[in-house]
Amino acid sequence: MMGSMLGLSLETWILLITCLCLFVMYGNSTFGVFERLGVPGVKPFMYFGTVGRHNKVYYIDDELSSKKFGRVWGMYEFRKPMLAVMDPDMLKTILVKECFTYFTNRRNLRLNGELYDAVSITENETWRRLRNILSPYFTSGRLKEAFAIMKHHSSKLKASLQPKAQNEEVVQIKDFFGGYSLDVMASFTLSVDLDTIDKPSNPLVSHSSKLFRVSVPLFLFQGCFPFALPLLELMGASLFPKDSLAFIFKFVEMIRADRTVNSQKNSGDMLQSLMDTQANVNGKESKSLTDHEIVSQVATFVFAGNETSASTLVFLAYSLARNPEVMKRLQEEIDATFPDKGPVQCEALMQMEYLDCVINESLRLYPPAARLERVAKETVKVNGITIPKDLVVMVPVYALHRDPEFWPEPEEFRPDRFSKENKPNIKPYSYLPFGAGPRNCIGMRFALLMVKLALVEVLQDYSFLVCDETEIPLEMDPQGLTGPLKPIKLRVVSRSKQ
């Protein structure tokens, strides 16, 4: 073998050496951006940049980087330069002040499959059009309409926990909160009662949970060789699981098509309202959605919203189980607001102060989206730092929420940080569980109402306890949204037995 290699012609050797040099040059060609901008950061490796340099869990890696470099640093996701920003003053400019001028768009990885026209992915005028059409479905009036739907499913959630609590069983808590969240989303959006709380084998449960499990090999390949993106798009490659996307889209499209054929009207659900825009446009295309856009928005809201809401409830239960004194105080507020386990009313629920504090603190420790991203449309200077055109600005929310200057003893679960007395001391733009500015989470108020109702209804009757199977501390999942690597297990007990 060695002899045959040495016997290669001069031309072949020149070709091999040239290819090797080009390979090395291409792998390093995007590096050096931050040295020129005077921004600190880790020295990148060829092709792999700075990925996982401090920790394989990307948001814990962000936290460790912030401790080393401060609130602004440069990083490379494979060959892609990204500016990490945790400075609240800069964040105000990027997310709010200059949103429409310079930072309108999130990063688009392009390999989005059927989600290419979802409101969370689209850009510029397309995003504005979709956002303007969708915003009316999340007004206070719509939330009050949705509350009755939430109540129906929260009652089923409470009933499903009863036999477990009577026997003081250890449960995988997401099995219950995940079913509740998905059922609420499907009922509000599609007028469909999936009943996944009692029927967890429904394939939509597994497909929705896999939606954010991106293909690691494809993510790595597109990061190292972005020139191949157009070809990958033509081939129909998708970072999201194609079988799950196809199943979900087929499910939603089947309901939409049936409505069209049978002229069925469900004025209370989101799908019908979006379909009605097609019939009532009066020649104004900007107010209308295509069939595919309708299916994309509904699928995104139901299944992406389900995962983030379920995750929030799971972390709430975990945090309360680990902090029983907080849970006891919250239950006292619940009992005072709704005496004798009375029915939960929307107005009273929204006025509960300590409940707000508990949920805010859980979202501080475990924000569903550990990062936010914006792309600079033009070169702009923010607080003395030049941000070149097309550079990705990454907001490390998980790390920001654990900055000890903003949050003393950040690892501690302390809901009083968000009390009426302490709230004025919170630095603006240091708390971003739903983002900020025009491109924040459109379903924020809906999600909070759903989470509050479920938590209050459950804690009226039950308590969560840690057990031998409860992992402390949690090992976090390096993929997707903020979440544990293994399912969280807790013991659920009836309050009457305590």
TrEMBL record:
Similarity comment: family membership: Belongs to the cytochrome P450 family.
Gene Ontology molecular function: heme binding; iron ion binding; oxidoreductase activity, acting on paired donors, with incorporation or reduction of molecular oxygen, reduced flavin or flavoprotein as one donor, and incorporation of one atom of oxygen; steroid hydroxylase activity
Swiss-Prot/TrEMBL cofactor(s): heme
Protein name: unspecific monooxygenase
Organism expressing this protein natively: Xyrichtys novacula (Pearly razorfish)
UniProt cross-references to Pfam families, sorted A to Z: p450
Membrane topology, as annotated: Peripheral membrane protein
Origin: domain of life: Eukaryota
Gene Ontology CC annotations of this record: endoplasmic reticulum membrane
Subcellular location: Endoplasmic reticulum membrane; Microsome membrane
Listed InterPro entries: Cyt_P450, Cyt_P450_CS, Cyt_P450_E_grp-I, Cyt_P450_sf, Cytochrome_P450_3A
Keywords: Endoplasmic reticulum, Heme, Iron, Membrane, Metal-binding, Microsome, Monooxygenase, Oxidoreductase
Binding site for heme: 441
UniProt catalytic activity: an organic molecule + reduced [NADPH--hemoprotein reductase] + O2 = an alcohol + oxidized [NADPH--hemoprotein reductase] + H2O + H(+)
EC number: 1.14.14.1
